Records
---
Amino acid sequence: MLKNKFHLIISTLVLAFTLGSIKYANAESIILASTTSTQNSGLFDHILPAFTKETGITVNVVAVGTGAALKLARNGDADVLMVHHKTSEEKFVKDGFGVERFDLMHNDFVLVGPDNDPADIKSANSVVTALQQIEKQKTPFLSRGDDSGTNKRELELWHEASFDPKAVSGDWYRETGSGMGATLNTAVAMQGYALTDRATWLSYKNKQNMQVLFEGDKRLFNQYGIIIVNQNKHPHVKRKEANSFVDWLLSSKGQSLIASYKVAGEQLFTPDALK
């Protein structure tokens, strides 16, 4: 417990130092609060240099879980928010912290696990049935447990499966409190199942005998939204530069760049706002 608290304190200090350094870096820069899954996919390395080259505006990404990204934006520690839990995003705007929400792009979630598939989720006719089979077999399931968009969706799916995994936390259901990559590493080590976004899975290098075992349910749709933080709440928000960034992402140029990003020949994100 003390070790976990120590790590939390260190992580908080590092994040605070990073935010402080970014905030005063230069006038032609903005802070984007986004998700570890988007960062881990490599998308930002693909699209942000093109935006900076065209506009001269640098985008500094703070990649955390969706819950933490929303908190940063609510506190005024970001100019733009890009996350993937629409209900939370709409509440963020409704509460006055965001100017307007736009659908930016989407992909999907998948259930991954060891190739011997001990819970036989390949045979499931829905993601709900797949989770029920994992619960019945008590096969290890690795959850991010970090209030990220992936974690929020996972818990919603368990609720649809009429099961509260928190009741068995620490048993066959394990919460890593980490990002998607670290959670997948734990799943590999424990030969357990995990819910992950497809983009992170395609970019993930340590698959070993793990594979996608369930996909395609409409409940696994994974929508990303983008929101400018409201300058009326936080006057220091760089509204002009933030507008330039969001307009560029929603333009045909930005959307085409998103569509062109591939790993192993597979497109990771489908743009939603082509104009």
---
Amino acid sequence: MKTRFLTRVTFTALLCLILTVVFSGSLPPFSALFQPIYAQESEQKFWVFDGHMHPMSSVYRRGGTIGEPNADPRFTLPLAEQGGLGAAFVNTGIDEFYEANHLAVKDAIRQFDHFYRELAKYPDRIRAATDGDQVRALRRENKIAAILSIEGALAIESDLGVLRMYHRLGLREMNLVHLLENNIGDVMHSPRNGGMGYGLTDFGRELVAEMNRLGIVIDLSHTAEQTVLDVIEASSQPVATTHSGVRALVASPTIPNWSDEMIRELAAKGGVICVPFLPMVVNQEFHDKYHTGRPRGSGLMGLEPLVYRGDPTKIFDFIEERRSRSSSSRSERARQRSRDIPPLSFLIDHIDHIARLVGVDHVAISSDWGGYPVNIRGIENAGEYQNIAQALLKRGYSREDVAKVMGENLLRLFDEVVKTAEN
């Protein structure tokens, strides 16, 4: 009985193989006959490393959870999994108002806590990672690697001891300058030195050296040109800009796009520039319609004085009132600007420019989910990452080069920075 059963199974398998050959005209690999369908489908997706996003700080400020649609539904775990996201620099966002009023460290710690609490809700889907080996291990398990990051070094309140403690808590990437100049360097829209800014300060050089020693990726987004060049020269490790476009394609004193010289210097040091899904960064027409005029300044205060002069016991009420006002205007901005978002081809133009200028090894992608209220048509939520890969393939990029842009370049940089640390 057992022998006859095995004979029938074997005959059925051979019959399926013969029919496949007859109707397709080719013999599939033997291993393919025994692979589950979902495995074959997943191989068509490129692994994604997103260089800059805010989903944790978004739900921290606005409520909800990353596992389901929330106040900013462009990023949820189901969408991220659908899009092939494998790793991301997940940012803690600190407003300049907090530093001016000595609340930055407290708010950063609270956001770190929220980061880990969110991860604890979904241990089978997303985990924290602090080095490249952990990212690869999570990749093998089909889990997302979340790398704790900070946008704006003002979060350390000029204290390297605070930086060291953040590192112990898992910090592995930090942007030096955000929306206003600080005691590290100048902001991109600086009027000084012909627009190039005042460069890296003495404290900034100490900070760069300590980030190198600890193995924290230096992010130069929003940073003025002279400071960028100074940091690249001072750093013993490759650096990144996690959300910058190409100035040759979109020129603006208020948008953090990079000149060809800056891109060449970054690449010469082994760095990576991440082109973001931000319409004002990649499209001149959108920029000119919505982003001319004065610089943005603090998210809470704009360019108003940052030091709070009211009743100290009411400062958090003041912050909440300001934040509520900002949230309502954000919704209106999203509604207006969604009508004019440019197509994906403009993002690909920026990637193409960088690849032709310095090689495909130095360009990557970033979403800024939770940051700006709208994105680019064709990549409007985390389920659409693969549209970028397909667009690059249509431009003639090889699958190997597309894989670099989609994630391998950032993983290489992250790996090198952590492994060359001396901590």
---
Amino acid sequence: MGQLQTALVVIGAIIIAAVIAYNTWQSGKFRRQRASIDADGPVRGELVEPGGLDALSVDGEPLEPMPLSPEVGPRPRLLPLQIDPLIDAISSYLLDPARSGEVLQPRLPKAARAGAKRMLFEGRNAETGKWEPLQPQNHYAELQAAVQLSNRAGPINAIEFSEFIAKCHELGDALGVPPDLPDMAEALEQARQLDTFASANDAQLSITLRARSVPWGVDFLRQRAQAAGFVPGAEAGRMVLLYQDVDQAPTPLVHLQFDARADLADSAAAVSHATLLLEVPQAPSAQKPFSRMRQAARDLGSALDAAVVDDNNAPLTDAALDHIEKQLDMLYEVLDQHGLSAGSAAAQRLFS
């Protein structure tokens, strides 16, 4: 490595260290300011603590749970995509007097991301006391900004977290309210633990349907899939088996994938195989997603004259599928124990 390269590496390391040190100092500064405000401030109420990462072990090694910041506190899970301290770092702003969503929304960051990680915003309704996405007509006594700590792309890093902190400061300046900021070291450690947990407990299962003789026309495949309960997906070469909970839009449970190029071509195009795919952490166990995928494989295998095989083209027997189902029951139990039940809003965000 030449002298110039060495110098650039040293300068880069110094800049990153300076950013981390600055954000750590700012976090402590604003927590001290907030402590003096909170001494006479309102009390948060009616909070139900979600499950944490306690008692988790990976490869036999226990993981130390990361306690929730006492300033943020545990919070109930009310809506899809809501802020959750189990997977989010949270900055909060006390609003006195309360302010309308119409006033708050234009002051939010235009890009609701910190690097590759999504940011969310919620307000505590001044009338009901409940947390909700900002609505223009409602007034809010408190605002929270959050960034997701981990997803399938990995945990948040120091640069992304610094970008989040910078946006929180900008929002605080726009509101004229000092933010109560999360601690960087604690957030990065929680992100690392979440990533370790997610890596050890993620599962994507597939069953392949392969034509025994002649390939299927795309129209023929679609018709047979619709007869088995599938509907067209949002992308070419994809159909979905849906489920619907009370007060929620229909949500994909099992995916059926085939050649997207053939799907975009004329109706004479043909395919020789299709794949059933189950994203285990994203589908509620109560919906019996693997059982429904097995049934769909049987129905489509019969309707299409297809062999039911695994990724290596080996036949999938009932005994093999039974074994997988038992393993899934164990995975569901682990996810339940740690507040990340399959199909929950938090699990769908973490395993995405």
